[in-house]
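User: Design a sequence. Structure:
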């Protein structure tokens, strides 16, 4: 596979190649042939076996045979001389500028050939221009047939437009590097991955320079130190924008805190609050009476707290308890005849019915009854007000609720023994409103209702 690394000088190409291509190849036991200025002793310090796997070339390989790729399916493209001596390359030929720079018989246990890392590949692999024939045809043929030799290639250049387009066009993955100093981060570089030479961007990330890799290679081949100096009067716009953003947020937070800070008479939500009462220094101390603890209750009756002389505690109003205190009152219906209204109620305790009564009974006991609407009334006893609705609990299973029926003419009631019958009286018209009844009556209730109805009719 042929991959490419593109970037201007100082963009991080050498760092990317060493850290993410050369080292992984060596760890997998693969040979690396390159013109990068690697420091072999530094690699040997990591693993002594890597000395045999690193080959750094500074001169083109000599010619040791003929190249013929016309019938590679039947014979080898590299035809090695057996009766002639190797011929050195001319002085104007650059490293990796001939097909013999890519000849190697090395193979690992998996049958893989070496990894070729060609730095500044636009020099040995130029495109044709006026006065220059460009890259030799044999080299272009080898790149197109590189899979037959089980070899991989990493090409590094500043601009692939200057490389032979026949080679650049078959690059599988192109990685573009750019130093992140434009973002104000000199210790990072931007890495963009493209799907081929002219393919779209498929990945982008920012990688940080790790100093542990710096000792493995020389980034500046003509000097031992870095003499690179940036423009002194130009700073990245993104740095200024970040500084402005931080200053803006600090100011915004401070302003919001000041704007919503509550004053003495205003809450944090802007509502007016009553001013706190001023405490008088001459005010008498207030004593709080606590409930007696369990130990005090066992020892004996609680003693009244001692009060300082000259002070008096105002008496507290006694709690009002109505006759039905501790029980619930429910409305079961209301009767109306000749302008007179009467409401029926039921008293319950712990979810069970206790007894029935009417509004007349409540008035007689000191209550005030006021009907509000159907199934709604209020029952008042002094300061105690009870809202009452038709929510009476059901009786035992299989029995339903029923209203208290009262004969207004005779005073007969369905919940009490029937008084003496009144003869020759028209049957009263009774209108009863009640909640929906539970299905079924017991035999005793049915007999009592029949007795009441017969008395009212007679």
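Assistant: Done.
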């Amino acid at each position: 596979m042929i991959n490419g690394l593109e970037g201007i000088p100082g963009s991080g190409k050498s760092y990317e190649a060493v850290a993410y291509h050369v080292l992984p190849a060596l760890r997998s036991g693969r040979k690396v042939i390159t013109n990068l200025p690697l420091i072999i002793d530094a690699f040997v310090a990591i693993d002594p076996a890597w000395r045999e796997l690193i080959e750094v070339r500074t001169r083109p390989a000599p010619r040791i045979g003929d190249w013929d790729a016309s019938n590679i399916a039947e014979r080898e493209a590299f035809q090695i001389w057996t009766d002639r001596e190797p011929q050195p390359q001319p002085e104007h030929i650059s490293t990796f500028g001939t097909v013999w720079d890519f000849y190697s018989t090395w193979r690992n246990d998996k049958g893989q050939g070496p990894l070729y890392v060609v730095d500044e590949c636009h020099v040995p692999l130029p495109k044709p221009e006026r006065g220059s024939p460009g890259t030799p045809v044999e080299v272009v043929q080898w790149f197109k047939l590189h899979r037959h030799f089980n070899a991989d290639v990493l090409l590094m250049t500043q601009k692939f437009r200057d490389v032979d387009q026949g080679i650049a066009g078959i690059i599988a993955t192109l990685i573009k590097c750019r130093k992140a100093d434009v973002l104000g981060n000199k210790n990072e570089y931007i890495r963009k991955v493209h799907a081929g030479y002219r393919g779209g961007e498929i990945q982008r990330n920012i990688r940080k320079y790790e100093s542990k890799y710096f000792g493995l290679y020389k980034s500046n081949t003509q000097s031992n130190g870095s003499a690179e100096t940036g423009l002194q009067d130009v700073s990245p716009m993104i740095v200024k924008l970040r500084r402005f953003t931080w200053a803006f947020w600090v100011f915004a937070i401070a302003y919001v805190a000041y704007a919503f800070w509550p004053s003495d008479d205003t809450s944090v939500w802007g509502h007016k609050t009553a001013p706190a009462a001023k405490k008088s220094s001459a005010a008498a101390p207030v004593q709080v009476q606590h409930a007696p603890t369990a130990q005090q209750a066992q020892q004996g009756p609680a003693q009244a707290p001692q009060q300082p002389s000259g002070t008096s505690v105002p008496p507290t109003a006694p709690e009002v308890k109505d006759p039905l205190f501790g029980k619930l009152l429910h409305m079961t219906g209301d009767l109306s005849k000749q302008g007179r209204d009467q409401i029926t109620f039921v008293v319950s305790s712990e979810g069970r019915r206790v007894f029935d009564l009417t509004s007349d009974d409540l008035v007689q006991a000191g209550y005030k009854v006021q009907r509000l609407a159907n199934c709604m009334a209020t029952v008042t006893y002094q300061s105690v007000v009870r809202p009452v609705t038709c929510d009476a609990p059901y009786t035992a299973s299989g029995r339903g609720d029923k209203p208290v029926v009262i004969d207004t003419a005779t005073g007969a009631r369905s919940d009490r023994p029937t008084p003496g019958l009144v003869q020759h009286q028209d049957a009263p018209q009774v209108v009863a409103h009640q909640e929906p009844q539970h299905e079924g009556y017991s035999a005793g209730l049915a007999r009592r209702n029949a007795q009441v109805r017969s008395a009212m009719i007679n």
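The longest strand covers residues 328-337. Helices lie at 13-27, 40-46, 137-144, 165-168, 237-259, 294-299, 359-364, 443-457.
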